[in-house]
Amino acid sequence: MEMEIVFPGDARVDAVSGNMVITTNQDGSAPAPFGLFLASIGTCAGIYVLSFCQQRGLPTDNVRIIQRMSSNPFTRMIEEIELDIQVPPDFPEKYKDALIRSAELCAVKKHLENPPQFNVHTSVHEGEVAK
């Protein structure tokens, strides 16, 4: 698996994966990288919640996930992330615990709980960078 990170100009930093480009920057015209990281947690859980509901024929138009983050005031690092899966009053009680279990299957959450090792280095390449 490989992703190319490119610098197309101004404050942009893009991630290219196959035929998809994810644009980021710090000036507010695109999501900041850390914002995408945080969004990946809730949206990943959302994929599992959506799949759970679809497999059981449960409507999702009134289901949502509220993600709350608590930071340490000294380090400014996020110390806790809460995912509140909000369902409508008529959502079947028998599925609520299973809905939580499905959200906990999120691959992003699993990787945070068991993080990969980082290896950052430089190398010299020949040729033109993709734009």
Instruction: State the distance separating the first and last CA atoms.
Output: 19 Å
Contiguous runs where pLDDT drops below 50 for at least 5 residues = none
Largest sheet, order of strands side by side? 1-2-3
Architecture of the largest domain in CATH? 2-Layer Sandwich
Quick one: biggest sheet?
Answer: 3 strands, antiparallel
Helix and strand element order: EEEHEEHH
| Tally of helical segments | 3
Query: Can you tell me the number of structural domains?
Result: 2
Strand coverage percent: 25-35%
- The percent range for helix content is 25-40%
Apparent shape: elongated
Question: Radius of gyration in whole Å, from Cα?
Answer: 19 Å
CATH topology call of the largest domain: GMP Synthetase, Chain A, domain 3
CATH class (first level) name of the largest domain: Alpha Beta
How would you state the average pLDDT, rounded?
94
**DSSP, total strands:** 5
Structural class: alpha+beta
Description:
The protein is an alpha+beta fold. The chain has two domains: 1-31, no CATH class; 40-113, K homology (KH) domain (GMP Synthetase, Chain A, domain 3, 2-Layer Sandwich). The chain has three helices and five strands. The protein has helices at 33-55, 96-103, 107-113, and strands spanning 4-9, 12-17, 20-24, 64-71, 78-86. The strands form two sheets. The protein has a three-stranded antiparallel sheet with strand order 1-2-3, with no helix packed on it. Strands 4-5 form a two-stranded antiparallel sheet. A hairpin with a 6-residue loop joins β4 (64-71) and β5 (78-86). The mean pLDDT is 94.
